[in-house]
Design goal:
The chain is mainly beta. The chain has 11 domains: 101 residues, Sandwich (Immunoglobulin-like); 106 residues, Immunoglobulin-like (Sandwich); 101 residues, Immunoglobulins (Immunoglobulin-like), CATH 2.60.40; 87 residues, Immunoglobulin-like (Sandwich), CATH 2.60.40.10; 84 residues, Immunoglobulins (Immunoglobulin-like, Sandwich); 63 residues; 65 residues, no CATH class; 81 residues, Immunoglobulins (Immunoglobulin-like, Sandwich); and more. It has 1 helix and 113 strands. The strands form 31 sheets. Strands 25, 27, 29, 32, 33 and 34 form a 6-stranded mixed sheet that branches. It has a 5-stranded mixed sheet with strand order 107-113-112-109-110, with no helix packed on it. Strands 5-3-9-10 form a 4-stranded antiparallel sheet, with no helix packed on it. It is flat.
C-alpha cells in the first residue's frame, strides 16, 4: 500500500499535477481551448494564439507530432483565412500565432485536420471590425431634388463608418460631421445647417435636420470624422426653391432710354418685374402685365404695350414704339391687384429723313410710249416718262435702305439690273438712282393646226415655213407654233401627205403676221380607206380527230372550218396587223405554233394563216383495291394487268391505279396469295375500261391462322438465388427470364416443341429437370412451368489490426488469397470479407513499415465456415524512425538582408535570420532530405550552393550550416547648383531624388550635396522651390544612373534676372460744369507706360493719355485709370469726380437780316440756333406773319432753311418770327421783316 502511494506522489511530482502525455498512437486532433473567448479583430492575429492538441483515442495529448492544417468551416462573413494555416505540433501541441480573418461577423468556426486523424471543429467565435478609418454615405440625399430651400432633407442622410478592410464598424460611437461640398447655388454663398458632428450609433451617424438656405443644382455633401478633413462625398443633388412670398407691386427693372425715336422699337426692351414686399422678384409670378402711355396731351400712341405674361416674374416688351415725337413721356405698368409702377420720363424724337430722286433713260426699237411706274418700298408709287432726266422725287423717307422698283415696262423692253434695287437714303440729303431701259423690235407668231378625217389616216405630216424650218405635226388635232416672226407675209406648206389623202384649199398657205399677235394656218385633210384579205387553212393528222374547229378574227367574226383541209377567207380588212385564233380544239389535239397567230394585212393583197394540228388516241383508267379478313394475313399481294405491269399492293386497304389504258376489256390478276388465303370470285377478273373514265375492280380475300404461342413460368425459392435464367424453345429461339416470372413465345409452328431452362447455378436444382416437351396448337397458347430451389454455400471473414509503439503507420493493406486488397487502419482497423467459400483462405497484411513487426507473421491461414463469420486479428509493434535537422545561417559582407527562407524537401518553409539564424525541424524521417535557402538577394552568394542534401539519423539531430557572403548594392549621387542673375532666389531650392534610398534635401543657390545609399539603377533628380523670376537651364529634372559602389552627379544652372516692377497709376482732374479734363501722373520705375485705359463712370471710355470728357447729367462719378508698361504689367487707380450742369438757358435763335420777297414766288431764307446747355432734342416754329406757320423737330444745333409763298394784292411787309424750344421747355426767338412786292 505504501509503494502505491509513493508511486502516485512521484507521478504528480514529475507531471506537475497534470495529466501526463500519452505514448499511445494519435487518434484525433482537438482545439486546446474554446475560441469563443478569443479576441479577434479583422486583419489582426487572433489572441491568444489558436492551439490544437494531438490526442489519443482516450483524449490524452500524445507526444507523437504531426502536421496540422487549419481551415474555415462556418464562414458567415465570406472572409479569407490568412496567416500560417499549417503548423507542426511540438510535444503534441500545434500553435498558430498569426491566424487572422479580414471580415467582421459572428459565428465563425475553424476546422483542424491532420493526416489519418479525426478532425475537430472549434466553437463559434466572433470577429470584430478594426478601428474606423473610412466613412461612406449609406443614405444619400434623394435624387434629383433632395428638398426645398430651408427644408429638412428627407429621408435623413446617414453616414456609416468602415474599417480599412471594408467592414462596418458597429462599435464605433465617435463624432461624424457633414459639411457642404459643392455649392450649387447661383450666389455660391449657400449655408448648410444641421451638419454639426454627432455621435455614431452602431457605426451609423444620422442627420435628421440637414437644411440648405438657397436653391441650386449640383450640391454635394462631405463627411468627416468630427471636424477633420472630409473622407467621402455624396452624390450630387438639387435644392428646389421654396414657396415664394406673394407679389405686391410692380417695378421697372429696365427703364426706357432717355431719348428714343418715333416709330422705332425701344431698345433695350422695357422690363417690368413683380416684386414682393421685400423688393425681391417673385419668380413664380406669371400674370399679365400691361403698359399705357402718359401723358395723353402729347398725342402719341403706344404700340406693343398689350398685356404680356411674366416669365420668372418679369414681363419683357420687345416691340414697344411710339408714333409721335414729344417730351416728358412716361410708361405706366398695371397688373391688378398689384400696385402700379411708372417709368422715368423720356423723350421721343422725330426720325431723321431724306429724299429719293428716280430718273429713266430708254433706247432701242418700239419704245414704251406710255412710260413707267416707280414704286418705293412696295407702297408709294409715281408715274415717270420713258426718258425722264429730271425724274420724280420721293420726300420724307426714313434714313435707311429703301427698295425701288420700275414697273409697267413693255414686254419688248428690258430694265438693266438690278430691278428692284436697294437705295440708301441719308438724313437731309437726296439720293438719286437711274433706271436704264433697252427695247427691241416687236414680232408675231403663227400657229399651224391639222384636222384629218376618213379612213387609213397617216400618223403625221411635215410642216415647213418659208421653205425651211421643217417640223413634224400630228395628222389629226396637230398643232405647232412659230414665234419671233417678222411682221410680214409668210408661206406655210404641209408635206408628206399620203396619196389616199386630200388637203382642202391646197397644201400651201400665205399668212400675214401682226406684231404681238398669233396668226393661224389651219389645214383640213380627208383620207379614204386601204384594205386587204386574209385566208385561214387547217391540216389535222393523228387519231381521234374532230370534224371541225372555230376560227375568230380579232376576237370576233367567228367561222366554222373543217378540221382537215379546211379553208376560209376574210376580205376588206384594214391594212394593219390582225389576230387569228383557232378554238374548239379537243384536249387530245395540239396546234403547232399555238392556236393564235398575228398576221399583217397588206393593201390589195391576201395574207395566209395556216394551222397544223396533231391529235392522239383517247384512253381510260383502272383502279384495283384489296380487302383481306381472317388470321395470318400477308402484308402484300402482286397485281398484273393483261399479264404485265406488275405492282405490289397492300393486303388490306390496298389501292393502285393504271392510267392510259385503251378503252377495251382488260384482264386483272392478283398473285402472290398465300395458301391459307382465298380470293373471292377468283384471282383473275375481266374489266372493261371506258375512255376518259376510271373503272374500279375490288378483290376480297379471307385467310386462316397458321401459328400458336407458348407461356413459360419460373418459381424460385431458397437463399442465394441467381439474377435470372435463359429459356430456349426449339423453333422459337431464346429469351431471358427472371427467377419468378412468366414470358411468352409467339408465332410458333403447330406441333411438338422442346423447352429448356438454362443458367441455374450449382446451388440451385430444377424440379423435374431443366427440359420439357410441349405441344403447340395453331391459334392457341400452350404452357410450361419450372420450379427451382436454392441453398447457401458461403461464409464471412473479419480482419482486425492493433498497433503499438512509436512511428506507427496510419494504415496497412489486407489481401485474401492474394487478391481483394483493402486498406485497413493501423490501430483499431477492421474489415469484413463476405461470400467466401467455406474452405481455408490465406489472409496477408502488407505495406508494413520496416520499423514494425507483425506478431505471428504477416500471413495467416483461416478456415471459413458456411453461413458464419470468422475473425482473424493482427498485432503489430513499431519502433521510432525519425530524427531532427538544425539549419544555421552566417552572412558576411555589405548590404546584407535581414533574413532568408528555409525549406525542407520543398515544403515546411520557415524564416531564418541572415546572420546567426538557426531553426530546427523535428520528426523527420531517417532518410536523405533536401534543405534549400531561398529569398537570397542577387548581391549575395551561398557557399556550396543554396541547396544542400542532408542525411537524418533516427533519434539524432543533424546540423546543416549555410555561409553567405554579400557585396554592396548601393551608390551615391552628388547634386550641384550654380545661380546667376541680378535677383537670386534668397532661400535656395529643394532637391528630390526618386527611387530606393532617395528623398529630398535643401540646397543653397550655389552649392553641392550628396545622396548616399541609393539603389543601383535609374533615378529622377528634381529641383523645386524656384522663384518665379528664375529659370533652370535644361529643365528642372535630370535622369541619372547610379552604379553599384560608385557615384554619379547632376548639375542645375539657374538664371534669376531682376523681375519687372509694375507701374504706378494715378491722375488728377479738373471739372467745369459738365466738362472734366484728366491728366495722368502715372509712372514706371524700370520702363515706360505704353497704354492708358479710362472709364468715366457713365459708360464713357478713352485710350488717350490726358482725355477730356463731357458728362450729360449732374452727379458724382468714379473714374478709373488702368495703365500697362512695356513688359505687360498693369496698375489701376480710381478717384471720384463731381459735375453739375449749368442752369438751363433758352436756345439762342438768329432769324437772319431783313429781306424782300415777290408775291406768288417761293421765298426761302436761312435761320440758325445754338444751345449753351445742348439740351436737345429741340422743336421749332416759324410764324410767317400772314397767319401761316411751319414747325418740326431738330436733333442738332446749326443752320437750317425754310420757304414760304406770300400772296398779296398790294405791297406790304411781314414779320417772320422763329421760335426754338429745348427739351426742358425753354424757348428762344428771333424776328426779321420781309417786304413783299408785286410781280
Amino acid at each position: 500500500m505504501a509503494l502505491v502511494v509513493v508511486s502516485c506522489h512521484i507521478d504528480k511530482l514529475l507531471t506537475g499535477g497534470k495529466t501526463p502525455p500519452s505514448d499511445a498512437p494519435p487518434a484525433r486532433v482537438a482545439f486546446s481551448s474554446s475560441l469563443g473567448s478569443a479576441r479577434a479583430r479583422a486583419g489582426d492575429p487572433i489572441t491568444p494564439p489558436v492551439q490544437v492538441n494531438v490526442q489519443d483515442s482516450a483524449g490524452r495529448v500524445t507526444l507523437r507530432d504531426t502536421l496540422i492544417t487549419l481551415s474555415l468551416a462556418a464562414n458567415p462573413g465570406g472572409a479569407k483565412l490568412r496567416g500560417d494555416t499549417v503548423a507542426h505540433s511540438v510535444d503534441g501541441v500545434a500553435t498558430f500565432a498569426n491566424i487572422r480573418l479580414d471580415k467582421a461577423a459572428s459565428g465563425y468556426t475553424l476546422t483542424a485536420a491532420a493526416p489519418n486523424l479525426h478532425p475537430d471543429t472549434s466553437a463559434a467565435f466572433s470577429v470584430m471590425p478594426a478601428p474606423a478609418t473610412d466613412l461612406q454615405f449609406t443614405v444619400q440625399p434623394r435624387q434629383p431634388s433632395a428638398a426645398m430651400q430651408d427644408s429638412a432633407i428627407k429621408p435623413p442622410v446617414q453616414v456609416t463608418a468602415y474599417d480599412s478592410l471594408g467592414n462596418k464598424v458597429i462599435n464605433f460611437t465617435g463624432l461624424v460631421g457633414v459639411t457642404l461640398g459643392n455649392d450649387g447655388s447661383v450666389t455660391k454663398k449657400a449655408t448648410l445647417s444641421g451638419g454639426d458632428p454627432v455621435p455614431a450609433v452602431a457605426g451609423v451617424a444620422t442627420f435628421p435636420n440637414l437644411r440648405i438656405d438657397q436653391a441650386g443644382v449640383g450640391y454635394t455633401l462631405t463627411a468627416a470624422f468630427g471636424t477633420a478633413q472630409p473622407v467621402d462625398t455624396s452624390t450630387a443633388f438639387n435644392i428646389t426653391p421654396g414657396p415664394p412670398p406673394p407679389a405686391t407691386h410692380l417695378a421697372f427693372t429696365q427703364q426706357p432710354p432717355q431719348t428714343t425715336q418715333a416709330g422705332a422699337a425701344i431698345v433695350p426692351p422695357v422690363q417690368i418685374a413683380a416684386l414682393d414686399a421685400a423688393e425681391h422678384v417673385v419668380q413664380g409670378f406669371t400674370g399679365a402685365i400691361g403698359l399705357a402711355l402718359e401723358p395723353a396731351s402729347n398725342g402719341g400712341t403706344l404700340s406693343g404695350g398689350d398685356p404680356v405674361n411674366a416669365v420668372n416674374g418679369i414681363a419683357t416688351f420687345a416691340n414697344l414704339s411710339i408714333n409721335k415725337a414729344g417730351t416728358g413721356y412716361t410708361l405706366r405698368a398695371t397688373a391688378p391687384p398689384l400696385t402700379d409702377a411708372t417709368s422715368s420720363a423720356f423723350a421721343v424724337r422725330a426720325p431723321p429723313s431724306g429724299s429719293l430722286r428716280v430718273t429713266t433713260s430708254t433706247s432701242g426699237d418700239n419704245l414704251d410710249t406710255d412710260g413707267y411706274t416707280v414704286t418705293v418700298d412696295g407702297t408709294t408709287s409715281q408715274s415717270i416718262g420713258n426718258n425722264s432726266s429730271g425724274g420724280v422725287t420721293f420726300s420724307g423717307l426714313s434714313v435707311s435702305n429703301h427698295t425701288v422698283e420700275l414697273t409697267g415696262v413693255a414686254n419688248n423692253c428690258t430694265v438693266t439690273a438690278p430691278n428692284p434695287r436697294t437705295v440708301a437714303v441719308t438724313d437731309g440729303a437726296t439720293a438719286v438712282t437711274a433706271f436704264v431701259v433697252t427695247c427691241t423690235a416687236l414680232t408675231g407668231s403663227i400657229t399651224v393646226t391639222t384636222a384629218t378625217t376618213g379612213s387609213s389616216l397617216p400618223s403625221t405630216y411635215t410642216v415647213t415655213l418659208d421653205g425651211g424650218s421643217s417640223r413634224t405635226i400630228p395628222a389629226d388635232n396637230g398643232s405647232t407654233t412659230y414665234d419671233g416672226l417678222s411682221t410680214t407675209n409668210h408661206t406655210v406648206a404641209l408635206t408628206d401627205v399620203p396619196g389616199n389623202c386630200t388637203v382642202t384649199g391646197g397644201a400651201s398657205k400665205t399668212v400675214p403676221v401682226t406684231a404681238g399677235q398669233t396668226a393661224t394656218a389651219a389645214f383640213k385633210i380627208t383620207c379614204t380607206a386601204l384594205t386587204g384579205s386574209l385566208t385561214v387553212t387547217t391540216a389535222t393528222t393523228g387519231s381521234s380527230l374532230p370534224s371541225t374547229y372555230t376560227v375568230t378574227l380579232d376576237g370576233g367574226s367567228s367561222r366554222t372550218i373543217s378540221a382537215d383541209g379546211g379553208t376560209t377567207t376574210y376580205d376588206g380588212l384594214s391594212t394593219t396587223t390582225h389576230t387569228v385564233a383557232l378554238t374548239d380544239v379537243p384536249g387530245n389535239c395540239t396546234v403547232t405554233g399555238g392556236a393564235s397567230k398575228t398576221v399583217p394585212v397588206t393593201a390589195g393583197q391576201t395574207a395566209t394563216a395556216a394551222f397544223t394540228i396533231t391529235c392522239s388516241a383517247l384512253t381510260g383508267s383502272l383502279t384495283v383495291t384489296t380487302a383481306t379478313t381472317g388470321s395470318s394475313q400477308p402484308s402484300t399481294y402482286t397485281v398484273t394487268v393483261d399479264g404485265g405491269q406488275s405492282r405490289t399492293i397492300s393486303a388490306n386497304g390496298g389501292t393502285t391505279t393504271y392510267s392510259g389504258l385503251s378503252a377495251t376489256t382488260h384482264t386483272v390478276a392478283l398473285t402472290d396469295v398465300p395458301a391459307n388465303c382465298t380470293v373471292s370470285g377468283g384471282a383473275s377478273h375481266s374489266v372493261t375500261v371506258t375512255a376518259s373514265q376510271t373503272t374500279t375492280e375490288p378483290f376480297s380475300i379471307s385467310c386462316a391462322a397458321t401459328t400458336g404461342s407458348l407461356a413459360v413460368t419460373t418459381t424460385t425459392t431458397g437463399p442465394e438465388q441467381p439474377s435470372g435464367y435463359t429459356v430456349s424453345v426449339s423453333g422459337g429461339g431464346s429469351q431471358s427470364i427472371g427467377t419468378n416470372q412468366t414470358i411468352t413465345f409467339t408465332d410458333l409452328a403447330p406441333g411438338s416443341h422442346s423447352v429448356a431452362l438454362n443458367g441455374a447455378p450449382s446451388n440451385c436444382s430444377v424440379s423435374g429437370g431443366p427440359s420439357q416437351t410441349v405441344n403447340v396448337t395453331a391459334g392457341q397458347t400452350a404452357t410450361a412451368s419450372f420450379t427451382i430451389s436454392c441453398v447457401a454455400t458461403t461464409g464471412s471473414l473479419t480482419v482486425t489490426a492493433a498497433t503499438t509503439g512509436s512511428s506507427q503507420p496510419s494504415t496497412y493493406t489486407v489481401t485474401v488469397d492474394g487478391g481483394q486488397s483493402r486498406t485497413i487502419s493501423a490501430n483499431g482497423g477492421t474489415t469484413t470479407y463476405s461470400g467466401l467459400s467455406a474452405t481455408t483462405h490465406t489472409v496477408a497484411l502488407t505495406d508494413v513499415p520496416a520499423n514494425c513487426t507483425v506478431s505471428g507473421g504477416a500471413s495467416h491461414s483461416v478456415t471459413v465456415t458456411a453461413t458464419q463469420t470468422t475473425t482473424e486479428p493482427f498485432s503489430i509493434s513499431c519502433a521510432a524512425t525519425t530524427g531532427s535537422l538544425t539549419v544555421t545561417a552566417a552572412t558576411t559582407g555589405s548590404s546584407q538582408p535581414s533574413s532568408y527562407t528555409v525549406t525542407v524537401d520543398d515544403g515546411q518553409s520557415r524564416t531564418i535570420s541572415a546572420n546567426g539564424g538557426t531553426t530546427t525541424y523535428s520528426g523527420l524521417s531517417a532518410t536523405t532530405h533536401t534543405v534549400a535557402l531561398t529569398d537570397v538577394p542577387a548581391n549575395c552568394t551561398v557557399g556550396g550552393g543554396a541547396s544542400h542534401t542532408v542525411a537524418v539519423t533516427a533519434g539524432q539531430t543533424t546540423t546543416e550550416a549555410f555561409s553567405i557572403s554579400c557585396v554592396a548594392t548601393t551608390g551615391s549621387l552628388t547634386v550641384s547648383t550654380t545661380t546667376t542673375g541680378g535677383t537670386p532666389d534668397p532661400d535656395g531650392y529643394t532637391v528630390s531624388v526618386s527611387g530606393g534610398g532617395g528623398g529630398s534635401q535643401h540646397i543653397d543657390p550655389n552649392a553641392s550635396l550628396t545622396f548616399f545609399n541609393l539603389a543601383v539603377g535609374s533615378h529622377t533628380v528634381t529641383l523645386s522651390g524656384i522663384a518665379p523670376n528664375c529659370s533652370v537651364s535644361g529643365g528642372t529634372q535630370r535622369n541619372v544612373n547610379v552604379p553599384a559602389g560608385g557615384s554619379t552627379s547632376a548639375s542645375f544652372p539657374v538664371d534669376c534676372p531682376t523681375p519687372n516692377q509694375p507701374p504706378t497709376a494715378d491722375f488728377s482732374s479738373s471739372c467745369t460744369l459738365l466738362v472734366c479734363t484728366f491728366t495722368s501722373t502715372s509712372s514706371d520705375p524700370d520702363g515706360t507706360i505704353v497704354s492708358y485705359s479710362w472709364t468715366f463712370g457713365d459708360g464713357g471710355t478713352s485710350n488717350e493719355q490726358n482725355p477730356t470728357h463731357v458728362y450729360t447729367a449732374t452727379g458724382s462719378y468714379t473714374v478709373r485709370l488702368t495703365v500697362q508698361d512695356n513688359q505687360g504689367a498693369t496698375a489701376s487707380a480710381s478717384h471720384p469726380v463731381s459735375v453739375s450742369a449749368p442752369a438751363n438757358q433758352a436756345p439762342s435763335v438768329n432769324a437772319g437780316p431783313d429781306d424782300t420777297a415777290v408775291t406768288g414766288l417761293l421765298y426761302s431764307f436761312s435761320w440758325s440756333f445754338s444751345d449753351a446747355n445742348h439740351n436737345g432734342p429741340w422743336s421749332y416754329t416759324i410764324d410767317w406773319g400772314d397767319g401761316q406757320t411751319s414747325s418740326g423737330p431738330e436733333s442738332t444745333e446749326g443752320t437750317f432753311s425754310a420757304g414760304h409763298t406770300y400772296i398779296i394784292v398790294l405791297p406790304r411787309s411781314f414779320t417772320i418770327t422763329v421760335t426754338v424750344t429745348d427739351a426742358s421747355g425753354a424757348s428762344g426767338s428771333d424776328s426779321k421783316v420781309v417786304s413783299v412786292f408785286l410781280l
